[in-house]
Amino acid sequence: VRDKLSMDPDQSSLFLFCGKRCDRIKVLLREPDGYVLLYKRLNVAQGRYRWPRKRSEAQAITWRQLDWLLSGLDIEQPKAIQTS
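The structure corresponding to this sequence follows.
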């Protein structure tokens, strides 16, 4: 995170990474006593993640969008109920 993204992994953020095949996602979370690494692999029937390939395409997401990603959905859900 420091070397490639020039960001501080010790800040209170989640960092998400996706493999070349776009069927696996890793989530890095810093907690007070260490790091948590979550790994999710979609099975063939669920397809692939749509994932930014350039640093300029990276974006912040909401907890709801993270839940969608971990459920195998796209982060853009046009029919989802908007919350303020």
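The first strand starts at residue 14 and ends at 18.
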